[in-house]
Each structure stands twice: as structure tokens, then as C-alpha cells.
Amino acid sequence: MQLSVIIVSYNVKYFLEQCLCAVEQALKGIRAEVFVIDNCSADGSVEYLQQKHSGVEFIINEKNEGFARANNIALNKCRGEFVLFLNPDTIIPENILTEALVFFKTNADAGAAGVRMLDGRGVFLPESKRAFPSPLVSFCKLSGLSALFPKSSFFNRYALGNLDAHAIHEVDVLCGAFMMVNRSLLQKLNGFDESFFMYGEDIDLSYRIQMAGKRNYYLGNLAIVHFKGESTGNNKSRHTRIFYNAMNVFVKKYYTGTRGLLLKMLLRTGIYIRAAISFLSVPLRIFIHDIKNTWAEKQRNIYLIGDIASTAEAEKIMLKHKLQKSFRGSLLIEKKEAFMPTAGSDIIFCTGLLSFAETIAVINQYPKKNNYLWHGLYTGSIVCSANKKENGIVYSIEIPNSETKNTGDGYKFIPGDHLQYADSDKNA
User: How far apart are the first and last CA of the chain?
Assistant: First the structure.
């Protein structure tokens, strides 16, 4: 078997649905297996998806085991020559797994490979490639200096801001949201260090891969969508606290004496600076957010882009959420011609004839121009994440709106067919 795919999921039911839709397309022609490890979700993820993805092995944990341990549980079941650790809030193109496997075959020194990640609006995510968190590097990251000087090799050493994001580089650290690793190497290293609950485990594994004499490669020529924060939540204070705790584990493991004390001090100082900046900027962020929302309501157009089958499914979901008043029309992609509606629209990519690779190419070419949403053929949802600092948006055929959890919605899902009205509700 060539590849084992491991996805750890926690309360991201519909994002996982779209992820699995993309993964299944990308695995065509590859001898592979897929594991979904559910970390005790409360949103019915497993029940909803098991019936749709019979080829996926679902592992259900009785409690939230954290990212590292959950991955290791599945790793013990893997048979593939290579293992892909993949976040559930990702969209991958059809060619990416084949291309990554080819890279390993032609680069014998490769221990792990990562890719260029874009958020839901096509903006590059700098954590795609990183350096090890030395005291100075960590301070610049946590204090916000790296964000102020994103292209600096000094202030933004953490995200290697001076390196071309579209090229291939050997780097220190890869992101666990998409990390392909040789399985025999993983077995020698005993997988992830379970001392890390969430965050830091990919840094630690990347470090140990290098210590084992292998190299970590960032493949900037390959891109995915990572709906930043959906699988971890968007509570910034909690995010910072967990990141700080993870860095403490890393420091305790690899830094001793004066260097360790210095790094801990810089980490804490950086967090205080970040907290102060965040607190002072809250009123401005709220003001800008309100203006954007007001403008969006006035200017909003919704376009469905795809073939007849997939756009018909998405339109049913839109009607369920009473979005038809904003709907402007479908752009059917029969000849794969170029397309791009007026900036400021909500564009729903309906993948069927339209490929995931084509959607990623569009948002890469036109970042921030529109809000981009995804609906995979034969799925019951539409998802997006327009801002990595805010929760994503989900429109589901199961749930009419945010005010009700009633799943008796009058629709039924028929594999291999379109979403249809249930007979008893045709005239609702």
C-alpha cells in the first residue's frame, strides 16, 4: 500500500465532509487507506459521515485525546509506505498526493514534506514553513514583531518570511495540517510525542526527523486550502495559552540551563505584549468589522460556479437557508473556461465537473477579492472561512438556520443522485 491518510476530527462535521470529498478525489489511482479519528465530538460527525464514506475507517475515542495521541492511535493501524497527517478543515487538489509521493521517490533524503497553505480567501498562511523556536525567534513571533515585518529574515525567522512561498525549500519545521512522512521513519521515532496535547507536536516531530538524518521539505509548488482555526476554535486567549504551554513542553525537552530560562522569559514577555496590543485594538477591530458587515449586506451577490448537478445541490441548500434573495445565478463550467465574477461576491464552488484544483487556482490568483465557499458533489453542506480570526460559516441541508437543531428538514440524501425533497414535504 502506498499511502495512509490520518485525519483527527473534533466537532467539525461539515468541514470534514468537504475534506473527505476532496481526499477521495485525490486518492484515485493510489493504493491507500483513510482513517478518521474522532476525538469525542458532540456534533454527530461519525453518524453523519459513516454512511456516506464506507471506505473510511472511523476510530471513535471516548474522550478528547488531543492531536498527538489521536494520530498515534491511527498510526498503529497504518499499512502505507507513507503517512499523511491531514487536518479536517482542509481542501486538497486532485493532484497533490500523487505529486507528493513522486517527490519522495525522487528525493531519497526526504523524511517529511509539507505544502503551501491558503486560508479560505486565498491568503497565504505563513506557518506553512517555519524555523525552530529559538528564544529570539519565539519572542518575535509571540510579540507580534514577525507580523509587522513579514518579509524579514530576522524578525520573521519563525515563518521564514524571506523565502519564496511558491518554491521548494528545505526547512526546519512543517505544519501538521498537511504533513506527509515516511512510515518506517515514523515507526523509528515512535510517532508524535504525546506530551503535546495540541500545538508544538509538529515542531517536535520535525526536529526529530532532522536529528534522524532526514530532511523536511516545503513544497511551495503545491497548495491546499486550510480553513484556519476550524479544528481548534477561535478563542484567541485560549489559543495563545495552549501555544505557550506547548512551547514550554518544547523548551523543557530541548533547552536546559540559562537558555531554557531565557526562552521561558521571552515567551511570557511576548505573550504580555501580544495581549496588550490585542486589548488596545479591540475597539478598532469592532468598528472595522461593523463597517464591513454593513457594506457586505448592501453589496452581496451569491454565485454558484460548477456543473448542473453540483449547482442544483447547492441551490437546494441555499433555499433551505433563505438565501435566494441574494442569489444572482449559476455560472456553469462545461468547457472549463476562465471565470471570475465581480469582486465583493460570495462565490460557491460546486465541485463535480469543476475540480478542487481549479478552485484553489482561482483563490490563489484572486485572494481577498471575494468570499469563497465550497460544496462537493453529493455532499449536504456548503462551508467557508472568510477570516482566520473568526469562525467559519456552514450551510447544511440538515439544519435550516442557526436558530433550530431540527434535522427533520424535508430533504433526503441519495448517494449518486441529487438532494431531493422528501415526498411528505414537497409542498412545504
Answer: 50
